Amino acid sequence: MFYKAIIQGRLEFGTEKSYSKVHKMYEYRTENYYKNALIFKSEDVFIESERALFIPRHVSQVLEKSFKNTTSLLEYCSQFAVSGSVRAWLINEGKIMHYFEIEPESDKAAVQSFLKGRNLVKQSGKEEEAILALTKAIEKYDRHAQAYERRAKVNFILKKYHDAKRDYGKSIGIDPTIPTSYYGRAKVHVIEDNFQEAIYDLEKATKNSIALQSIYWKARRMKATCHIKLEQYEKAAFDLKFYTMRKFKEDDINFHFKKWGLYNYGICLLEIKEYEDALEAFDKALSYENNSYFKIKDSELIRNRGYAKRLAGKKGYITDLKQAIKLGDKKAQKLLKELA
Q1: Segment 135-143 mean pLDDT
Q2: For the whole model, what pTM was predicted?
Q3: Does domain 2-102 match CATH 3.30.450?
Q4: Disulfide check for 185: which of 118, 168, 218, 317 has CB 3.0–4.6 Å away?
Q5: Where are the domains of the chain?
Q6: String of b and e for 19-36 (b: at least 16 CB within 10 Å)?
Q7: What is the CA radius of gyration of the chain?
């Protein structure tokens, strides 16, 4: 039975000796261990001039055996690499059967410094130590895309936005398949009010991730926000339509933004004069509780629902506006006077 495979990423081997060794071993194992039951031939993925294995983005229908053979061989190759990451999914009817994130874990100095730095990034208060470890990894191998990406994240946390944007850019320049690099740089662009540049990076983030990943929807949510900032309401509504239709698990950060998504979807629909759909979005938003991530006042929701009812020619808009006024919404009071 055939399944959908998505594979992308890059492994860098640093020296000609390491590259040559792993290239020969790949070809030997292809012929002798796996009997060509693989997704890639060596010439498909090895780039001699860059001493790297590179899979920009591969999507195909494959046998489970071929997928497992390929990821096993890529795992073997990764132990010769000095940096890099390959991500591989096998999907059946929209569900992930297998997922592998393949990275070097050898005792090479650059590898060990990166692993130490990556672990420190996750620990609050360890930012300076993380930067030192990640900088050491970069000094050992200056094409370490993952180290640049993690160091950029720490710089962002420390509000060193110029340094963060520089490191994200270097990461992208080395490995253009890492979605978090684009997402991180987009966050810097948003802080700088460069919303169009942020949208470009967020589109790259979604193209280099899949809809089964949280990062895909985080990028799409931020992209909608940028469109709203630019008053591109139709484009924002397009992103938010799919965002609000998506069912997220409770451990996914996006789960906590459903109320936010539905509220802003309703606002965008009002702007593009799709009033009945806006009314439906506001109704759904009111069914969600607020949380610590993003709070939307019910008074605002009820006021906008009332306004949507009025524009859609529905009854009950005065009741909604009066209810919003009771909840302390001053705009509802002004709107009710105007309508009266």
Answers
A1: 96
A2: 0.92
A3: no
A4: 168
A5: 2-102
A6: beebbeebeebbeeebee
A7: 25
* CA dihedral for 226, 232, 238, 241, sign (positive or negative): positive
Sheet holding 2-12, edge to edge: 46-47, 52-63, 2-12, 83-92, 95-102
pLDDT at 40 over 90: yes
Given the DSSP bridges, would you call strands 2-12 and 52-63 parallel, antiparallel or unpaired? antiparallel
Q: Which amino acid is at 124?
A: S
Write out the two tokens for 35. 């009997």
Q: Quick one: average pLDDT of 23-35?
A: 93
Going by DSSP bridges, is the β-strand pair 46-47/95-102 parallel, antiparallel, or unpaired?
unpaired
In angstroms, rounded to a whole number, what is the distance separating the alpha carbons of residues 111 and 108?
5
Report the pLDDT value the prediction gives residue 5, as an integer from 0 to 100: 97
pLDDT of residue 242 exceeding 80:
yes
Query: What 3-state class would DSSP assign to 182?
Result: helix
Give the HSE-up count for residue 79: Cα atoms under 13 Å, Cβ half-sphere: 7
Would you call 292 exposed, middle or buried from its count of C-beta atoms within 10 A (0-12, 13-18, 19+)?
Answer: exposed
Predicted confidence (pLDDT) per residue in 165-205, tens digit: 999 999 999 999 999 999 999 999 999 999 999 999 999 99
Non-local (6+) Cβ contacts of 279 within 8 A are 266, 305, 308, 309, 312, 314
Tens-digit pLDDT profile for residues 261-303: 999 999 999 999 999 999 999 999 999 988 877 788 899 999 9
Q: d(Cα 165, Cα 185) in Å, to the nearest integer?
A: 6
CA atoms within 13 A on the CB side of 261: 23
Residue with token string 């261990």 = 33
* Cα dihedral 325→331→334→339 (10° resolution): -90
Burial class (CB in 10 A: 0-12, 13-18, 19+), 161: middle
End-to-end CA distance of the chain: give it in Å, rounded.
66
Whole-number Å distance between alpha carbons of 77 and 99: 17
